[in-house]
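User: Can you predict the 3D structure for this chain?
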Amino acid sequence: MTLWNDDIEIQFFTQALKNFASPEQLFYNLQGGYFAYVPKGSNAEGQTLQSRNSLIGQFTEKWSKTLFEPIAEELGLFAVNSVVCDELGISRQSSADLAFCTTNNIKVILRYFVQTQC
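Assistant: Here is the predicted structure, written as structure tokens:
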């Protein structure tokens, strides 16, 4: 099992540039060059890469699903991205990034809900 490393980060940047993102969405444009991170001792020159947050979020959600799928399968479950469960207050506006479910559907209905009292 390979966890997040430099190679996977390079894969993210390569796929993003090839398929859906511009360099300005992914990198800091500092002193005429593009940087994934602001070099130590440098100034970000007022740049904040909010656009990269959602792009890397999408990538890492899929990456996490791939990482956890073998574990879910061992448990007889499915690893599912973007799960919605009204009973738990998990809506489409704020779906679960990853969940282990008994079906491969993003819409989850709780069949059993155990409530305990302290």
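The chain has a mean pLDDT of 82. Residues 6-55 form one domain.
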